[in-house]
DNA sequence: AACCGACTCAACCGCCTGCCT
DNA sequence: TAGGCAGGCGGTTGAGTCGGT
């Protein structure tokens, strides 16, 4: 038995809003406010719409000072950083971008930004961002050394794709969220085409404790194309817990979201230290370019 | 010109949360 | 404390548009 609907679905209009409806809603709210009751609002102003629909129309389209389209590099950076930090919590992300709605950001992420980051062009994009934003401002010197070593290794081996590393640079406004979910900082200290090893650490400002264990991710791509809808890929995850020696296998749809969730789980369960990725199963030659990079191709630092 | 697939984004759906009684 | 309700939210849908053939 489902939940009772918020309104009589048969008696309300659906679909795109007309300019007349917009005008009525906008004019009323500007004069009287919402009265803290969206459900009764349509009746009060005489339009056949669901209260929730009115709320959405106001918040996403009619309210003042909204910006549509034309996201700047700074906004891109904030969205990316926060997405990496807190995941798809669009309302929180939107709260950091004045004039943007959660819906706009969600659409922008799903249709453009995600692809931008996952494409080869994302590399240039990363570089652009790093010109604008100070590199690795919260990185420790040891991290920088690791990054340098990492860079040197990859320069030698000509694996330029893997020159992209994750830098622990997260906007300060996300600190509360970070501490709540114990956001990890990823410090890659070893990388080769089919093996990326991260050091997990907490944000130093939030916590200083470490955990000790390791796990491995064996990712098996079910798709060979990145840049369409293939951010979701069937992957095989194997977790080897050093402390107990037990092993866990599971399959999941892996995009970065899953990767992130797994990391958080690792930390929440006191399993930190190292996380290792192995590209051990390669259905085709595109595998490495795509699947591994889909994990490490996120923020936002390029040593070149 | 017609067709078709990809893309965009406004809008909807349904679940979750928190407030009120 | 429990139940009902409205608000808030993220995921998803589908109509409209665009670009390629």
From TrEMBL:
SMART domains: SANT (SM00717). This is Myb domain. GO terms for cellular component: nucleus. It is found in: Nucleus. Residues 214-231 have a biased composition (Low complexity). CDD domains: SANT. Keywords: Activator, DNA-binding, Nucleus, Repeat, Transcription, Transcription regulation. GO terms for molecular function: DNA binding. Residues 9-62, 63-117 form the HTH myb-type domain. Residues 210-243 are annotated as: Disordered. The keyword Cell membrane does not apply. It comes from Arabidopsis thaliana x Arabidopsis arenosa. Its main location: nucleus. Residues 9-62, 63-113 form the Myb-like domain. Pfam families: Myb_DNA-binding (PF00249). The keyword DNA damage does not apply.
């Amino acid at each position: 038995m489902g939940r009772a609907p918020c309104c009589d679905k048969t008696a309300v209009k659906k679909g795109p809003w007309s300019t007349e409806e917009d005008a009525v809603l906008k004019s009323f709210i500007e004069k009287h406010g919402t009265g803290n009751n969206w459900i009764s609002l349509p009746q009060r102003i005489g339009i056949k719409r669901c209260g929730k629909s009115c709320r959405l129309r106001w918040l996403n389209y009619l309210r003042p000072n909204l910006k549509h389209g034309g996201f700047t590099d700074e906004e891109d950076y904030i969205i990316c950083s926060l997405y990496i930090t807190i995941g798809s919590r669009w309302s929180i992300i939107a709260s950091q971008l004045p004039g943007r709605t959660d819906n706009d950001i969600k659409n922008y992420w799903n249709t453009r930004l995600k692809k931008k980051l996952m494409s080869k062009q994302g590399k240039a994009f990363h570089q652009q961002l790093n010109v604008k934003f100070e590199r690795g401002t919260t990185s420790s010197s040891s991290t920088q050394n690791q990054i340098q070593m990492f860079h040197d290794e990859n320069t030698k081996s000509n694996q330029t794709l893997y020159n992209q590393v994750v830098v622990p640079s997260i906007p300060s406004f996300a600190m509360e969220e970070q501490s709540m979910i114990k956001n990890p900082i990823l410090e890659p200290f070893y990388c080769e085409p089919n093996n990326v090893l991260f050091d997990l650490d907490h944000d130093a400002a939030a916590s200083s404790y470490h955990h000790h264990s390791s796990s491995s991710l064996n990712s098996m791509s079910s798709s060979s194309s990145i840049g369409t809808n293939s951010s979701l890929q069937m992957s095989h995850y194997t977790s080897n817990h050093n402390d107990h020696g037990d092993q866990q296998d599971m399959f999941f749809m892996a995009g970065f979201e899953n990767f992130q969730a797994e990391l958080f789980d690792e930390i929440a369960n006191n399993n930190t230290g190292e996380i290792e990725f192995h590209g051990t199963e390669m259905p085709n030659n595109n595998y490495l370019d795509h699947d591994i990079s889909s994990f490490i191709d996120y923020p936002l630092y390029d040593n070149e």
